[in-house]
Design a protein that fits this description.
Shape of chain B: elongated
Strand content of chain B: under 5%
Number of strands of chain G: 2
Strand order of the largest sheet of chain G: 1-2
Chains: A mainly alpha (115), B mainly alpha (89), C mainly alpha (134), D mainly alpha (157), E mainly alpha (530), F mainly alpha (769), G mainly alpha (143)
Bound molecules: sodium ion
Structural class of chain B: mainly alpha
Distance between the termini of chain G: 10 Å
Radius of gyration of chain B: 15 Å
Strand content of chain G: 5-15%
Helix content of chain G: 55-70%
Number of helices of chain G: 5
Helix content of chain B: over 70%
Largest sheet of chain G: 2 strands, antiparallel
Largest interface: E-F, 142 and 109 residues
Oligomer: heteroheptamer
Number of helices of chain B: 4
Structural class of chain G: mainly alpha
C-alpha cells in the first residue's frame, strides 16, 4: 500500500501547490485544505501503515492482544488536523474579508503593501 | 467469509469510484452534494465491513459519527443554495 | 447458517450501494438521482449494520448497530429533503421525461410563498396571476 | 410530561450507545439527557399525543420494510436496464398530519421509500409536494402514500 | 527536574486564558497585561539564573521519562531567549496601554499578546520537535490574529501573504517532522540527535536538514524566503509591529540554531556554504530593500531581514566565536529593533504619519526621543560602543578567522548601507523642519488630547530599551561570556543530550539498534487481566 | 584613572543639557576646565615621556574578546593629546562667544565634549578595538557637529557625506584592525610592537594594509576621499577649527604614524602613502586658491597639509618623520588660529566671502594681527614654526628613496600655492579699503580673540625657540620610528636647496596673490573637470545604490505572492534534488501489498484532488476536495486509526460548512493565468510532489529504530489508566501538545471573530496613512 | 435567495441536536478507553450547534445558550486546560503529571486528564461554534 500512498501524497502536495500558485484566492483556500491533508497523510504513512488492530486495549487486558498500529503518529496527526482546521478557518475568513475589501478574486490586486 | 468480506469491500470500493464520477460531472452543485452524501454513506458501509473484518467493534463509532453528523455537509450546501450562493454550474 | 446470513446481508448491502452509485451516474436529473442514493445506499448501510450485529452478537454492539440504523433512517431523508428542495428551488433542470409538476405553479419566486392549491378562494387572489392546475 | 418522555428516551439512547446496561449508567444517561433537554427546552414544541405503542410500531416496521424492498427493486431494475421506464414528476399530496413531528415523520418515511421524495411543505402545511419516479399509475401511488401516512399517524394517536 | 522551566510558558498561557475568559472587562485585561508580563519577566529571570548556575534545567512534562514524554529544557540559549522575550513582552505590554484602542481591547488584543509570548517561550523551551511545531503554531495563529486586528485594507493584503507563506513554512516543518518520526521513531530532539547520528541513510538526514532549514528559513525571513515580512510587518498597530519585529523572526532563527547544531551537526559541512551565501544575500537584499523605502516602518521592516543575515552568518561560520556573535546579534536585534518600531509609533502619534516626507522637526521638540532613536539607529548600523557593534565585531572576526573574506566584507558594507537608511530617517524625521503640509503639527495640544500619561507610557519602554543598547555595549563582558557559554553548549550537543536523556545515553545508543524494524507491539508479553 | 577622566568627558557630554539648565552660558567656562586640566596633567607628565618612560594605564573591558581599555602615553600620544587639550580649551572658549545666545548651545556642548573625550581615547588607546571604538565615536560626534544647523539642508547633506565617507572608511579600518589582530595574535598595540615576527611578511599584510590605509585616508581626507572635508565647513567655525584642522582629520595621520614601525617601510606602504599624500597635497593647495569662501579655502589648504603629512610618513626616513612631527604641530596651531579668525570675520561681517571683505584692520586690529602671524606660519616663513616644518619637509622630500623628483615637484608647487593662499587669507580681508558687509564689523570679544591670538603666538614662540623643542619632538619621532631618533632643530641651516626653493616659491606665491582674481577666472574654466571629481563619484555611487535598491525591490518584492511561493518552492526543490538525487542516490525496495478496495479509496483520494483545479466551479472543487478528505478518513480507518478517521470526518464536515458560509460571498472561479504560467506552476508542483513521494518511500524503506510509542503502549493501562492509547497520548503522555493545540484553535476563533466584527473607522486623522 | 426555512428540517434539528450533544458527552467521557475524547466530542458538539444554527438561526441559538457566549466557553476551556496542569505542581511533580482521585461512591475516578479533556471539549466547542456563529451573524447583517 505504501508505494500507492506515496504517489497519492505526492499528488496531494502537487495539486495543493498548483492551487496555491493560482491568482484566484478561492483556489488558494482549496489549496490550503489539500496541503494540510497531504501533510497529515504523509505523517501517517511514513510512520508505517498497518492493517493490525487499532491501538486500543481490551477491557480485561493490560496490554494489546497482538500487534497494534503505532498510536503516536495517530495522536500527532490528530493534533495536526485540528491545528490545520483552526488555521484554515482563519485563512478562509481572512480571504473572505480581503475579498470584501479588494472586490476581486485576484491576488494580483493585492500587492500594494509590498513596495 | 473472507471472500465475502473482500467482495463486499471491492464492490463498495467500486461504488466509491462511481460516486466520485458524479462529483466530477456535476453539473450542478446539488448533484455534487448528493454524490458526496452517497460517498459518506458508502464509507459507513465500509466501516461496518471493516469492523467485521478486523473484529474490532470500536470501528462502529466511526459509523455513528457519520450517521449523526455526516448529513451536516448537505445541510450546509443547501443553505448555501438557499441564500443565493453562486451556482457556477 | 449465521455466516450465510451475514454474507447475504453484507453482499446485499454492498450491491445496494453499487446500485446507488450506478444510479447516481446513470440517472438523468438531480431528483431522480436522489431517489437512487437516499434509499438504496441507506438500505445498504442498514444491511451492513445488521451483518455487524449478527457478527458480534454482543449486546453493546447490537445496540450500537441498531442506533446507527436509526440514525441513518433519521438523517438520510432529512438531508435528501433539504437538498432536493434547495436544488429544486434554485431551478435545477428537470429531466425532459418528467411528466408533471404540481409544485411549480403554486410557488411564487418573489415572495417565496408556497401555496397548497387548496386554500380558500380569498387567499389565492392575486392580480395578474391565474394559474390552473394542469 | 413530554419532557419526561424525551428524557427517558435520551437516557435509553445513552445506555444503548454505551452498551453498558447497568442502572448507574442509565442514571448517568438520564442526568445528561436532562441537562441537554434543559438546554433546548425553550425551543421544544409540544409533543402531545406521543406514546410508545410497541405492537403498532412493529406492524408498521413490517409494512415499511415490505414497501422498501418492493420499491427498491423497481428502482434497481430501472437503473440497471438501459431504457428508462420511469415517468417522474412532482405531485401534491394532501396531508392529514398536522403537528411538526407528524409531518416530519411522514415526510421522512416518504423520502425513505424508493420512488418518492418529499420536496417541500406548502406554507399552510396542508400539502406535501413529492417527487415521484413512477407516475404511470398515479392513483395507486397516491393511495399507497395515504396508507403509509395513515399507518404512521396511528403511531402518534 | 525543576518546575521553574515550565513557568515561563504556563504563566502567559494562564494570563491569556484569564484575559479571554474575562473578555468583557477592560480593566481586568489591562491589569493582567501588565501583571502577567511582569510575572513572566520575574520567572524568566529566575530561570535564567538557574540555568546560569546549572547549565541545563530540565523537566519531564507529565513525569514521563524522556524520550517518551515531552521534555522542557532550558540551556543558556533558550534561557536568554526567554528572558529577552519576557523583557520585550513587558515593554510592549506597557506601551500597549497607551496605544491600544477600545475596539482592539474588546476583541482580544491582550490575550493574543500573552499567547504570542507563550508560543515564543514554549518554542524556546521545548525539547521535542513536534511540540516545537505546536508552539510555533500557537505563536503563528496569535500573530495572524494580531496582524488583522482592525481589518484595514493594507492589513488584509499583508495578512494574506503572511498567512500563506507562513503556512507553507509550517507545512514544510510538519512534513519534515513526519519524515523524521518515520525515519527514527522518536520526537524528542535529543533522542533524534542520537538516532540520526546512528542512521544508515545519511542522505535522508541531509534531506531533513534541508527541509528544516527551509521551513525555519521562511520563519526567520532569510533570503530567498523572506518576502512575507516586508509585505506585512508595517501594517498592524505599531505595538504589534514592534513585537513581531523584535521576536517572531528570532524564533525562526532560534529554531535554525537549535536544529542545525543539535540534530544535523554531521551535515554541517554541506550546509555551511548554503547558509553562508544565504546569509550574505539576506543581508544585502534586506538592506537594499530598505534603501528603496520612504516610510518609517517599511524601512525598519526590511532591516529586520537584513539583520537576520548577520545571525545566519554566525551559524554558517559555525565556530564558537561565530555562534556567540550570531546569538549576540539576535539579542542585540531584539532590543534595538523593537525599540525602533516603538519609536516610530511615538513619532506617528506626534505627527500622524509614517511617511518620511511629511514628518520632521522632532529632534528639537523631543530631544529625548531623538536621542533614543539615534542610539538605536546607530546601534543597528553596528557603530560602537553600542550593542550592534559587538555583534558585528564578533562576526567579522570570526568571518576573517574562517577565511570567509567576501561574505565578511559584505557584512561590513551592509553596516554602511544600514547607516544610509538610518540617516535617512534621522535627517527626515528628526533634523528636517516639519513640512508645512503636515497639518498635525507637533504641538502640545495633540499630545495633550492623547493624554500626557499615554505619552509617558510610550516613552518609558523606549527610554529603557535605548539605555539598554548603550549599556549592552559598554558593559559587554558579562554578556559576551554568556554568549560564549551558549556557543560552547550549542557546539557540544552531548551536554544537551545528557541533560535530556539522563545517564543512560551511552547505553541507549547501542540498544537503539538492538532490535531493528520491530513492529509495534510485537514481542509484548500476553497481557493479563488486572 | 585616565580612563575615568575620558569617561568624565562623556559624562559631561551627557549632562551638558542639564548643566545648561542650571548654569546657562557659564556652562562654557565650566567645560573649559576639562581640557585645561587635561593639558596641565599632560604637561606634567611630559618630562617623563620625553625621558623615554612611556606611561601605561591598564584596564579591562571585554576580556573574553581580548578587548582592553588600556591606555598608553608615549611621545606621539602626548603630542596629539596636548594638541587636543590645548586647542580644545581655546576653541571651547571661543565657541562660548561665537555661539552666544544660541538656543542649541547645550546640544553643541554635548556633542563637542563627547568628541573631545573620544579624541583623547583615540590617541591614547592601546587596544586595537578600543582605538576603533573611539575612532567611530569621533565620526558620530562630528556628524552631529557638522549637522549642527540641521534645519539647513546643506548642513544635513554635508554631515551625511562626512559620516558615510568616514564610517565607510571605518569599516575598512575595522577589517584592517581585525586582520592585524589575527595576524599578530594580539589586540594590543604595545604587544604588537614587541612582537618577534615581522608582520610585513605575513600573508595578510597586503589586504591588512590596504584596509588600514583606506580607513586612514577617509578620515584624513586624502585623495580620493577628500571631498567631504570642504563640505564639512557647513559646521560652525569652532567645529571647523577643532575637528577639521587640529584633531579629527589628523586621526588618520595618527593611525598611520602609529602603525609605521610595524607596517611601514615596505614598497606598498611607501607607494601608497607618498604618492597618495603627494597628490593630495598638490590637489589641496591647488583647490584652495580657487575659492573665495574663506572657510573653503582653509579647508582645501588643510587637505594640502594632511597630504603633506601622509607623504612624509610614506617617505619614512628619519628626516621625514622629524618634518612630520614639526609640520603637524605647526599646522594645528596656525590652522586652528586661522579657522577661528575666519569664524570671527564671518561672525562680525556676516559673510564668508573674502572678496566681500576689505580694510578690516582698523575695525579689528587684534584679529588682523593674529591672522597675519598665523598666516606667516601657514606660508612657511621664518621665524615661525611653519617655516621649520616646511624646510624639514623639503629636505626630506629631496632625499626621498622613492619618487624624489616627482615628490619634489609636487611639494614645490604646493608650497607656492600655499603661500598665495596664506596671503589671500591674511591680507585680503584686512588691507585695502573698507567694504560694506552685511553686518557692521567691530572687534570680537575677548573670549573669541584669545584662541586665535594665543595659537598664533605659540607658532611664533615655538619657531623662535625651536632648538629647545628638540627633545620633545625627538620623543614623538622615536615613537613613530620605533627606534630612538635625535632631532636637531634650528631656524637657520644656512643657504641650501630647501631655502632656495622656499624663496622662489615665495616669489611665485606673491605673484599669484597679486593676480589672484585673474587666475581664478582662468581656473574657473576647469570647473567641468573638477565637477567630475571624487565627489561626483560619491554621488554616482549613492544614486546607483538607490537605483539598485529600487530595481531589486521591483524585481524581488514585487507584490506577486505566487512569485514568492515559487521562489520558495524552487529553493526547496533544488536543495532536495541536490541532497537526495545528486549527492545520495536512493536505492528503493518496493513491496506491493494492496487490496482492491484500498486501491479504489486511494484512487478517489487522488482523483478528488486532481479534479479540484480542473473544475470550473468553486463549490464543485469544494466537494471534490471533500471526497479527498473522506477518502483520507477511510484510509485512516482501513489502517487502524479510528480516532483519526472520526476526527478527519468531523473536520472535513466542518470545513465544508465553513467553506460554504464563506465562499458564498466569493465570486466564481476565474482563469487568470496564462498557459505558460500554468505549465510552469504545474512543473514546479509536480517536481515538489514527486520529491515528497520519493521521500515517503525512502523513509518507509529505511526504518531502523524501535519507535518510542512502544513504551506508551506498554504503560497505557498500568500507568496512565487508559485503554485508548491515542487518547492517553493526547491527554497524558503528550498533553502539552494538546494544550497548545486547543490554544491554537481558540486563537483562530478569536481572530475570526475580530476580523468579522471589529471594524475600526478607517482614518482617524486627516493626515493618517 | 430561495424559500428559507423548512418545518421538516427544523423538527429534525430539534430532535437531533440533543441526541448529538448527548453523543458528544458520551464520546468525551469514555474517550480515555475507546475512540473519542475531548476533541472529537467537542467537534461533534460544535456540529450539533451548527445544525441548530442552520435550522433556527443565530438568535434562537443564542437563546438556548442564554447568557453564555461561545467566547466564555473558549475561556473556560482554556483555563481548565491550564489549571489541570497545576495540581501536579502542588504535590511536587512536573506539571501535567496525571493526578487520580478515586470517588468510591460512584465507582469512578476523577482525574486531571479528565479535567483536561473537558477543557479541550469546551474550548473546541466554543471555538468552532463561535466561528460558525459569527460568520452567520455577519452574513445575516449584510443580507
Ligand atoms: Na547529530
Ligand atoms: Na551538535
Amino acid at each position: 500500500m505504501e508505494p500507492l500512498m506515496a504517489v497519492g501524497i505526492g499528488i496531494l502536495y502537487a495539486v495543493a501547490i498548483f492551487l496555491i500558485l493560482r491568482r484566484s484566492i478561492v483556489k488558494l483556500v482549496i489549496g490550503f485544505v489539500l496541503l494540510a491533508n497531504a501533510a497529515n497523510l504523509l505523517i501517517f504513512t511514513t510512520a508505517g501503515m498497518t492493517r493490525d488492530a487499532p491501538p486500543l486495549i481490551a477491557d480485561d487486558r493490560l496490554l494489546p492482544a497482538g500487534n497494534v498500529a503505532d498510536p503516536l503518529p495517530q495522536a500527532v496527526v490528530l493534533t495536526a488536523i485540528v491545528i490545520a482546521f483552526g488555521v484554515l478557518a482563519f485563512a478562509v475568513v481572512l480571504i473572505r474579508r480581503a475579498y470584501e475589501i479588494v472586490q476581486a478574486d485576484d491576488m494580483d490586486q493585492m500587492k500594494d503593501t509590498d513596495t | 467469509m473472507e471472500y465475502v468480506i473482500i467482495m463486499a469491500q471491492s464492490i463498495m470500493g467500486l461504488a466509491l469510484l462511481l460516486a466520485f464520477v458524479r462529483v466530477v460531472r456535476g453539473p450542478s452543485l446539488p448533484d455534487r452534494a448528493v454524490a458526496l452524501e452517497l460517498f459518506s454513506t458508502i464509507v459507513m458501509g465500509l466501516v461496518g465491513v471493516q469492523a467485521i473484518a478486523s473484529g474490532v467493534a470500536s470501528f462502529l463509532d466511526v459509523a455513528i459519527v457519520i450517521a449523526l453528523m455526516g448529513f451536516l455537509a448537505s445541510i450546509g450546501f443547501a443553505r448555501f443554495l438557499e441564500r443565493g450562493g453562486l451556482r457556477d454550474d | 447458517m449465521i455466516d450465510l446470513l451475514k454474507a447475504i446481508l453484507l453482499l446485499g448491502g454492498a450491491l445496494l450501494m453499487l446500485l446507488a452509485a450506478v444510479g447516481i451516474v446513470r440517472l438523468p436529473d438531480l431528483l431522480t438521482r436522489m431517489h437512487a442514493t437516499t434509499k438504496a445506499a441507506s438500505l445498504g448501510v442498514n444491511l451492513t449494520m445488521l451483518a455487524v450485529a449478527l457478527h458480534f452478537s454482543d449486546v453493546g454492539v447490537v445496540a450500537r448497530a441498531l442506533a446507527i440504523i436509526l440514525f441513518v433512517l433519521t438523517t438520510a431523508p432529512i438531508a435528501a429533503h433539504v437538498m432536493g428542495r434547495a436544488g429544486y428551488f434554485v431551478g435545477t433542470r428537470l429531466w425532459s421525461g418528467t411528466v408533471k409538476d404540481e409544485l411549480r405553479p403554486n410557488y411564487d419566486p418573489l415572495t417565496h410563498e408556497l401555496k397548497s392549491g387548496q386554500e380558500p378562494r380569498q387567499n389565492v387572489e392575486r392580480p395578474g396571476r391565474d394559474e390552473a392546475p394542469e | 410530561m413530554i419532557g419526561a418522555v424525551w428524557n427517558l428516551l435520551l437516557g435509553l439512547a445513552w445506555v444503548v450507545l454505551s452498551g453498558d446496561f447497568s442502572g448507574f449508567n442509565l442514571l448517568t444517561g438520564l442526568v445528561f439527557g436532562y441537562l441537554v433537554l434543559a438546554l433546548i427546552e425553550p425551543q421544544v414544541a409540544p409533543l402531545s399525543g406521543y406514546s410508545v405503542r410497541l405492537p403498532r410500531m412493529l406492524k408498521f416496521v413490517a409494512f415499511f420494510l415490505k414497501e422498501l424492498i418492493h420499491a427498491n427493486w423497481r428502482v434497481a431494475f430501472d437503473i440497471m436496464t438501459p431504457p428508462w421506464h420511469m415517468r417522474p414528476g412532482v405531485i401534491a399530496m394532501p396531508l392529514s398530519a398536522y403537528t411538526d413531528l407528524e409531518i416530519t415523520f411522514v415526510a421522512n418515511l416518504i423520502s425513505l421509500t424508493p420512488g418518492t421524495l418529499s420536496l417541500d411543505l406548502s406554507d399552510d402545511r396542508r400539502v406535501l409536494y413529492i417527487h415521484a419516479m413512477f407516475l404511470d399509475d398515479e392513483e395507486a401511488l397516491r393511495s399507497s402514500l395515504k396508507e403509509m401516512e395513515h399507518r404512521a399517524l396511528e403511531l402518534f394517536r | 527536574m525543576n518546575p521553574d522551566v515550565a513557568l515561563p510558558v504556563l504563566l502567559p498561557l494562564l494570563s491569556g486564558a484569564v484575559s479571554l475568559l474575562f473578555w468583557r472587562s477592560r480593566a481586568l485585561q489591562r491589569f493582567v497585561a501588565v501583571a502577567g508580563m511582569l510575572g513572566l519577566f520575574v520567572v524568566s529571570v529566575r530561570l535564567f539564573l538557574l540555568t546560569l548556575e546549572n547549565g541545563y534545567v530540565t523537566m519531564q512534562v507529565g513525569n514521563w521519562p524522556a524520550p517518551f514524554g515531552i521534555t522542557f529544557i532550558a540551556d543558556m540559549f533558550s534561557a536568554v531567549m526567554v528572558l529577552l522575550a519576557s523583557m520585550i513582552g513587558l515593554a510592549i505590554g506597557v506601551y500597549s496601554l497607551a496605544t491600544t484602542g477600545r475596539g482592539h481591547e474588546a476583541f482580544g488584543y491582550y490575550p493574543l499578546m500573552h499567547l504570542l509570548l507563550a508560543g515564543c517561550v514554549g518554542a524556546f523551551l521545548t525539547g521535542d520537535i513536534f511540540n516545537l511545531y505546536v508552539w510555533f503554531e500557537v505563536m503563528l495563529v496569535a500573530s495572524f490574529a494580531l496582524l488583522i486586528l482592525g481589518s484595514e485594507r493594507a492589513q488584509m493584503e499583508g495578512a494574506i501573504k503572511y498567512v500563506t507563506l507562513n503556512l507553507l513554512a509550517s507545512v514544510i516543518f510538519l512534513t519534515a517532522t513526519g519524515l523524521t518520526y518515520g525515519l527514527v521513531g522518536t520526537l524528542n530532539m535529543a533522542d533524534i540527535a542520537l538516532r540520526l547520528d546512528a542512521s544508515e541513510h545519511q542522505g535522508m538526514v541531509e534531506v531533513l536538514a534541508v527541509m528544516y532549514m527551509v521551513a525555519f528559513g521562511i520563519k526567520a525571513a532569510a533570503f530567498p524566503l523572506f518576502f512575507w515580512l516586508p509585505a506585512s510587518y508595517h501594517t498592524p498597530p505599531v505595538a504589534v509591529s514592534a513585537l513581531f519585529a523584535g521576536l517572531l523572526t528570532k524564533v525562526g532563527v532560534y529554531a535554525l540554531f537549535r536544529v542545525l547544531t543539535l540534530l544535523f551537526d554531521q551535515s554541517m559541512d554541506y550546509l555551511q556554504p548554503i547558509l553562508l551565501w544565504g546569509a550574505a544575500f539576506t543581508m544585502v537584499t534586506g538592506v537594499l530593500g530598505a534603501a528603496a523605502q520612504y516610510e518609517f516602518r517599511r524601512i525598519l521592516s526590511f532591516h529586520i531581514v537584513s539583520q537576520i543575515g548577520y545571525m545566519l552568518l554566525g551559524l554558517a561560520l559555525y565556530t564558537p566565536l561565530a555562534i556567540a556573535g550570531g546569538v549576540f546579534a539576535v539579542m542585540h536585534n531584539i532590543v534595538v529593533k523593537t525599540n525602533l518600531f516603538l519609536i516610530s509609533g511615538v513619532a506617528h502619534r506626534l505627527q500622524g504619519t509614517y511617511r518620511l516626507k511629511r514628518m520632521g522637526g522632532l529632534s528639537r521638540r523631543h530631544p529625548w526621543l531623538a536621542a533614543a532613536f539615534f542610539l538605536s539607529a546607530f546601534s543597528l548600523a553596528g557603530l560602537p560602543p553600542l550593542s550592534g557593534f559587538f555583534a558585528k565585531f564578533m562576526l567579522v572576526r570570526a568571518g576573517i578567522e574562517a577565511g570567509a573574506y567576501v561574505v565578511t566584507g559584505i557584512a561590513l558594507l551592509v553596516g554602511l548601507m544600514t547607516l544610509y537608511s538610518m540617516v535617512k530617517i534621522w535627517n527626515e524625521v528628526f533634523w528636517k523642519k516639519l513640512p508645512d503640509d503636515n497639518n498635525v503639527p507637533d504641538n502640545t495640544a495633540a499630545t495633550e488630547s492623547n493624554g500626557r500619561l499615554g505619552l509617558a507610557l510610550m516613552y518609558l519602554p523606549v527610554m529603557v530599551l535605548a539605555l539598554g543598547t548603550l549599556l549592552i555595549g559598554v558593559f559587554a563582558e558579562p554578556l559576551v561570556r554568556v554568549m560564549n557559554m551558549i556557543a560552547t553548549q550549542l557546539l557540544n550537543s552531548s551536554g544537551y543530550i545528557e541533560a535530556v536523556l539522563g545517564d543512560n545515553v551511552a547505553s541507549r545508543t547501542t540498544t537503539l539498534l538492538a532490535e531493528p524494524k520491530t513492529p509495534v507491539g510485537e514481542g509484548l508479553a500476553e497481557g493479563v487481566a488486572p | 584613572m585616565v580612563q575615568l577622566y575620558i569617561g568624565l568627558g562623556f559624562l559631561l557630554a551627557a549632562v551638558a543639557p542639564l548643566l545648561h539648565r542650571w548654569m546657562g552660558d557659564r556652562t562654557n567656562l565650566l567645560l573649559v576646565v576639562y581640557p585645561a586640566l587635561a593639558a596641565l596633567w599632560l604637561i606634567s607628565q611630559a618630562p617623563g615621556v620625553i625621558a623615554g618612560n612611556n606611561l601605561v594605564f591598564t584596564a579591562d573591558w571585554v576580556p573574553s574578546l581580548g578587548l582592553s581599555l588600556t591606555l598608553m602615553l608615549d611621545g606621539l600620544a602626548l603630542m596629539f593629546a596636548l594638541l587636543i587639550s590645548i586647542v580644545g580649551a581655546f576653541v571651547l572658549l571661543y565657541a562660548g562667544g561665537y555661539l552666544k545666545g544660541n538656543p542649541d548651545m547645550a546640544r553643541f556642548h554635548a556633542a563637542f565634549m563627547a568628541f573631545m573625550a573620544a579624541m583623547f581615547g583615540l590617541v591614547l588607546a592601546d587596544g586595537l578595538v578600543t582605538l576603533f571604538v573611539f575612532w567611530e565615536l569621533t565620526s558620530i560626534t562630528s556628524y552631529l557637529l557638522i549637522g549642527f544647523n540641521h534645519q539647513d539642508e546643506k548642513s544635513r547633506e554635508a554631515a551625511r557625506q562626512s559620516l558615510f565617507v568616514t564610517v565607510g572608511g571605518g569599516l575598512a579600518l575595522m577589517a584592517g584592525l581585525v586582520l592585524l589582530g589575527i595576524a599578530s595574535g594580539s589586540w594590543s598595540l604595545t604587544d604588537i610592537r614587541s612582537l618577534e615576527t615581522d608582520l610585513r611578511e605575513h600573508a595578510l599584510y597586503t589586504p591588512m594594509l590596504l584596509c588600514l590605509v583606506v580607513g586612514a585616508f577617509t578620515k584624513s581626507a586624502q585623495f580620493p576621499f577628500h571631498f567631504w572635508l570642504p563640505n564639512a565647513m557647513a559646521a560652525p567655525s569652532p567645529v571647523s577649527a577643532y575637528l577639521h584642522s587640529a584633531t579629527m582629520v589628523k586621526a588618520g595621520i595618527y593611525l598611520l604614524a602609529r602603525l609605521q614601525p610595524d607596517l611601514g617601510d615596505t614598497a606598498l606602504w611607501t607607494a601608497l602613502l607618498s604618492l597618495g599624500g603627494g597628490v593630495t597635497m598638490l590637489l589641496g593647495a591647488f583647490m584652495a586658491v580657487r575659492y573665495t569662501n574663506i572657510k573653503k579655502l582653509l579647508a582645501y589648504s588643510t587637505i594640502m597639509a594632511l597630504g603633506t603629512l601622509t607623504m612624509l610618513l610614506g617617505i619614512g626616513s628619519d628626516e621625514a618623520l622629524i618634518a612630520f612631527a614639526v609640520f603637524l604641530v605647526a599646522h594645528s596651531l596656525y590652522k586652528g588660529s586661522l579657522f577661528m579668525v575666519a569664524g570671527i570675520l564671518d561672525h562680525e561681517t556676516g559673510t564668508q566671502d573674502i572678496q566681500a571683505m576689505g580694510g578690516l584692520r582698523a575695525a579689528m586690529p587684534v584679529t588682523a594681527a593674529a591672522a597675519m602671524l598665523a598666516a606667516l606660519s601657514f606660508a612657511g616663513l621664518p621665524p615661525l614654526l611653519g617655516f621649520v616644518g616646511k624646510e624639514a619637509m623639503l629636505k626630506a622630500v629631496l632625499k626621498a628613496d622613492a619618487f624624489p623628483l616627482l615628490l619634489a615637484v609636487l611639494a614645490f608647487s604646493a608650497a607656492f600655492l600655499t603661500i598665495a593662499a596664506a596671503a589671500i587669507v591674511a591680507l585680503r580681508p584686512f588691507l585695502g579699503t573698507l567694504k560694506a558687509t552685511p553686518r557692521t564689523p567691530h572687534e570680537a570679544p575677548l573670549s573669541m580673540l584669545l584662541g586665535p591670538s594665543v595659537l598664533a603666538l605659540l607658532s611664533l614662540l615655538l619657531g623662535l625657540f625651536v632648538p629647545l623643542t628638540g627633545p620633545a619632538f625627538s620623543a614623538v619621532v622615536t615613537a613613530v620610528a620605533g627606534a630612538p631618533v635625535e632631532v636637531p632643530l634650528s631656524l637657520w641651516h644656512g643657504v641650501n636647496l630647501p631655502l632656495v626653493l622656499t624663496m622662489s616659491s615665495l616669489l611665485l606665491g606673491i605673484g599669484l596673490y597679486l593676480c589672484w582674481d585673474g587666475v581664478r577666472a582662468r581656473l574657473a574654466t576647469l570647473t567641468p573637470v573638477t565637477h567630475r571629481g571624487p565627489q561626483a563619484w560619491y554621488y554616482a555611487i549613492l544614486r546607483a545604490f538607490v537605483s539598485l535598491a529600487e530595481w531589486q525591490t521591483r524585481v524581488l518584492q514585487n507584490g506577486y505572492m505566487r512569485h514568492y511561493i515559487l521562489v520558495m518552492l524552487v529553493t526547496l526543490a533544488a536543495l532536495l534534488v541536490n541532497s537526495i538525487l545528486i549527492r545520495h542516490a536512493p536505492g528503493l525496495s518496493l513491496a506491493f501489498d494492496v487490496r482492491f478496495h484500498e486501491v479504489m479509496v486511494a484512487a478517489t483520494m487522488m482523483l478528488g484532488a486532481l479534479a479540484a483545479p480542473m473544475l470550473r466551479s468553486s463549490l464543485g472543487a469544494v466537494v471534490s476536495v471533500g471526497v479527498t478528505g473522506f477518502s483520507i478518513a477511510l484510509i485512516f480507518l482501513l489502517f487502524s486509526a479510528p480516532d483519526l478517521a472520526i476526527t478527519q470526518l468531523l473536520v472535513e464536515t466542518l470545513t465544508v460548512i465553513l467553506l460554504v458560509l464563506v465562499l458564498f460571498r466569493l465570486p466564481r472561479f476565474s482563469h487568470l493565468s496564462t498557459r505558460f504560467e500554468r505549465i510552469r506552476d504545474g512543473v514546479v508542483a509536480a517536481v515538489v510532489g514527486g520529491l515528497l513521494s520519493l521521500l515517503v518511500l525512502i523513509a518507509w524503506d529505511v526504518k531502523q529504530f524501535t519507535p518510542i510509542s512502544q513504551y506508551m503502549i506498554e504503560n497505557s493501562v498500568s500507568l496512565a489508566h487508559g485503554r485508548n492509547i491515542v487518547n492517553v497520548i493526547l491527554v497524558d503522555y503528550r498533553a502539552l501538545d494538546t494544550l497548545g493545540e486547543m490554544f491554537v484553535l481558540s486563537l483562530a476563533a478569536i481572530g475570526v471573530i475580530a476580523m468579522l466584527k471589529l471594524r475600526v473607522p478607517p482614518v482617524r486623522r486627516s493626515t493618517g496613512e | 435567495m430561495v424559500k428559507p426555512g423548512s418545518v421538516i428540517l427544523n423538527t429534525a434539528a430539534r430532535m437531533l441536536m440533543p441526541l448529538q450533544l448527548l453523543f458528544s458527552i458520551f464520546l468525551l467521557l469514555r474517550g480515555h478507553d475507546e475512540p473519542g475524547g475531548g476533541f472529537i466530542a467537542g467537534l461533534v458538539a460544535a456540529g450539533a450547534f451548527a445544525l441548530y444554527l442552520f435550522a433556527f438561526g443565530v438568535d434562537a441559538t443564542r437563546a438556548i445558550l442564554r447568557a453564555v457566549d461561545p467566547r466564555d466557553l473558549i475561556g473556560t476551556g482554556l483555563l481548565l486546560g491550564v489549571l489541570s496542569a497545576l495540581p501536579a505542581w502542588f504535590v511536587g511533580e512536573p506539571i501535567l503529571t496525571a493526578q487520580w482521585w478515586p470517588i468510591d461512591a460512584l465507582g469512578m475516578k476523577l482525574s486531571t486528564p479528565l479535567i483536561f479533556d473537558i477543557g479541550v471539549y469546551l474550548a473546541v466547542l466554543g471555538a468552532v461554534t463561535a466561528m460558525v456563529m459569527t460568520l452567520m451573524e455577519v452574513d445575516t447583517d449584510e443580507g
